[in-house]
Structures are given as structure tokens and as C-alpha cells.
Amino acid sequence: GRCKYGDQCDYSHELY
Fold this sequence. Notes:
By secondary structure, the chain is largely without helices or strands. It has no helices and no strands.
């Protein structure tokens, strides 16, 4: 997934 540095999200999916 696309996330800003420090944000919690699932990098396996496009979750913000």
C-alpha cells in the first residue's frame, strides 16, 4: 500500500 512515513497501514494492500 502507499503510506506516508510513520503512518500505520497494510503494505500488502493499497490501504491508506
